[in-house]
Design a protein that fits this description.
Blueprint lengths: L3 E7 L6 H9 L5 E7 L6 H6 L6 E5 L5 H11 L4 E4 L5 E2 L1 H13 L5 E9 L5 E5 L6 H7 L9 E3 L3 H4 L10 H11 L3 E12 L5 H4 L1 H15 L3 H16 L13
Parallel strand pairs: 1-2, 1-4, 2-3, 6-9
Antiparallel strand pairs: 4-8, 5-9, 6-7, 6-8
Helix pairs in contact: 9-10
Length: about 250
């Protein structure tokens, strides 16, 4: 039985998907890789048909978007632990092996996260980022200082929090992990776990402000009073107006 189930939603990702597949295949921990393709027309299906990676399972069919695809993947997963890796990103395989071993040795920990290496379209590392200390409230106020693809969590938590909310177009991951982290002990790993690829067609490049607007609505739902709402709105304003002008701004979170 796999210890780790990696879920990858894809649609027309043939350019970068081989790197994601290879990074999962290099894992030493028993694993499965569940790829949910949304009906690609760029050769993604043919690429998957020609792979013989142990533990690779995939389907290709029309879906309602990325969130729906991730939910289908989580529902199919059989591993004790779950991770969500997009088709244009990569695992740092040995670091993920160590994170999985840590979770196996520490049953009281429900989820871990780590840093990321930001790649350009050619796969060159342009930035290295390790998040600062963790608290649920910090995650609520600051949001995306934790790289979503670096999170590994126990599958049992799905029974408590349910799947992703498909009503969100671009911030369903943030809503999901807020709910999940509230239910468990979360720890930061001392190293990067993923390589995040920033390119012109990525969601981060094309929909970042939609994501921020949705994330603010999610935060405000959790606000406990006027002070919380003021902090959330102030930080959102800073992210939209001040932080984009500061080079290497993720270091502010260290």
């Amino acid at each position: 039985m796999p210890v780790l189930s990696v879920v990858t939603p894809v649609r027309n990702s043939a350019v970068y998907l081989p790197h994601a597949l290879d990074s999962v295949a290099r894992l030493s921990v028993p694993h499965e890789h569940i790829v949910i393709d949304g009906g690609s027309t760029d050769g993604t299906v043919e690429l998957l048909q020609n792979r013989d990676d142990p533990g690779l399972h995939w389907i290709s069919e029309a879906d309602r978007g990325q969130t729906h695809a991730v939910n289908k993947g989580f529902a199919r997963a059989s591993g004790e632990l779950l991770a969500w890796l997009n088709g244009d990103d990569e695992l740092i395989s040995d670091a993920v092996d160590r994170a999985v071993a840590y979770l196996q040795e520490h049953g009281e920990v429900g989820a871990v996260f780590g840093g990321m290496h930001v790649l350009d379209e050619q796969g060159v590392v342009r930035r290295r980022y390790l998040p600062g200390r963790y608290s649920w409230r910090r995650y609520l106020i600051m949001g995306d200082y934790i790289p979503t693809p670096s999170i590994i969590f126990r599958r049992s938590l799905l029974d408590e929090v349910g799947l992703l909310d498909e009503s969100y177009v671009d911030a369903a991951d943030y809503d999901f992990y807020l709910r999940l982290f509230e239910r468990c002990r979360v720890e930061r790993r001392p190293e990067a776990l993923i390589r995040f690829r920033y390119h012109s067609a990525s969601k981060t490049a094309t929909n970042v402000w939609l994501q921020q607007r949705e994330a603010l609505r999610i935060r405000l739902k959790w606000a406990s009073g006027p002070l919380d709402r003021a902090l959330m709105q102030g930080f959102d304003f800073a992210k939209r107006t001040v932080l984009p002008r500061i080079s290497r701004w993720p270091k502010l979170y260290s």
